[in-house]
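User: Can you write out an input/output pair for a complex, sequences first and structure second?

Assistant: Here is one pair. Inputs:
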Amino acid sequence: MIHAFIFLLAFAGFAALLMAMSRHQQEWLRRKLSPRAGRSLRFSGFAALTIAFQLAGLGLGWAYGTVVWCGWLSAAAALVVAINVNRERLLERFRP
Amino acid sequence: MKDSFRQSMAWLHTWTGLVPGWLLYIIFLFGTVAYFQSEISRWMRPELTPAPVSAKALDAADALLRQRAAGAASWNVTLPDDRRGDPLSVSWMPEGADRSQREKFSLDPATGQEIAVRETSGGFFLYRMHFDLHYMPVYWARYLACIAALSMLVAILSGVVTHKKIFTDFFLLRFGKGQRSWLDAHNVTAVLALPFYLMITYTGLVTLLFTLMPWAITASFGTPGAFFEASSPPPPKLEAAQASGPRLPLSMLVASAERSSEGMKPAFITIRKPGDPTSPVEIWPQTNSLGGERAMIFLDGATGEILHREGGRGGAKATQQVMINLHAGRFSGPMLRWLYFLSGVGGTIMVATGLVLWTVKRRAKLPDPARPHFGFRLVERLNIGFIAGAPAGIACYFLANRLLPLDMAHRSDWEVNLLFIGWGALFVWSIGRPAKQAWVETLTACATLYALVPLVNAATTSHGLVPSLFAGDRVFVTFDLLMLVMAAACAFTARKVLAHQPKAAPRRRAAPTMAEAGA
């Protein structure tokens, strides 16, 4: 259960970090967000990763939790990359 | 001289990555597989009924040793861990015999009955292959592993410098763009699990610390023997008066050891000179925490009292132990083990894409692409032979486990030989074929072999995918499914290579597939 929360937080964090980059905003939204929105996305992205770390440390012990956190970070980032690669296919489905 | 810092780092990255690259690939591949060594052992010993070790079984082991090994030089009992890939096994060395004459019996961990388990090295071989290789002295293999790991560390650090856009390209993976795609795939797999690679390479060097730096010992201790004596003191000798009676049964000794500290679970029990009642009982615990020092305890055989507990061997030793634990991941629960495995898969793909990238980059610049120079052909052939060949070898190992006759002499050795025969055959075959066909054919062979594993398993044991699903046997189900995933990944890659049509200029290769190296 705690693993699911750590993963979801890490995933949300990396998704926010992806959308904070203007190149990816253009690809996903076909427009660029304001610099302010980008900054807040970046901030929330790092905040989510930090909360995930706190959660892992408090829930699983700081030693074990840190190892788990690193593992989920890689897994979550890999999923974000996989989704980003299949962007066109996904967008077609949701945007006629 | 190279004109800029980054260019010289790129040069360093290319060559420290390429030269030991195939060895690194083997180390990554087998190391990744080894995270599941207990589960693999369990699959490779289908006769075994997994269960926690019962007191009854321990007493049966005890009785067996007393009956048949009374005059032995030493008794050894190995207890399966929580992942239950191994039987409860007892072994002893007859007095005056050498290691090859060791007697060994497997017992059912629940009932203590002797069971006939097929002779196999199981997952343990795959784990040993990760750093000891095979068909060569362990000593040399470990030196090679050290050199590979050192180069890897240099390659990682210089790679970070070379790939300057580590953050702006963080999520970037573009398929169908030729060389650019291979570069993306290499970068993405490298960046996503970068902390893991740094950790695993550095801690890997720490596991081979004294192979790499024997001078650390000679500087302070004179001889290696003196160091080991100082770092792990010899067992205490009991006073003759204390040995007041016969040795307690194993079940009581284990219970006493487990009571001695929270979460202590014995892994090995050794009794040296079992005929002498004063010789202490040595118990090695399992590694089940990251920080825990694996402290051996010594029990008084007659009373079950703890005579001595290793420990408090200083900060350096404790640090080394944490690093080794971090590397081997034995402390990890099921979820973390999967994360270790996935990071390992990432590393294997990173090495494989790096090796392929070397050829992709140079193919475009070849003076005559139809007749590349020797170095290019060598790298290309080694890439095919290792990247597709080694996983195929592992599939052969699993198939051999199911197909070799159960009563064959040296059966476990032949399982291992078949790994290398299968791999070698594919390697030799691929040399005689044009590069593209060689990739397609070796990958297809690899896919076929992996697809065969669940089929052969279903045909030769009662643990096929369907019965295991009904029985809820997670290890067997997951193993078979992973074989199918691996088969699908190889087939997908083979199809991609086949469908790829190189354009005249710029030359491009098939879209990279994340599954290239696979599990």
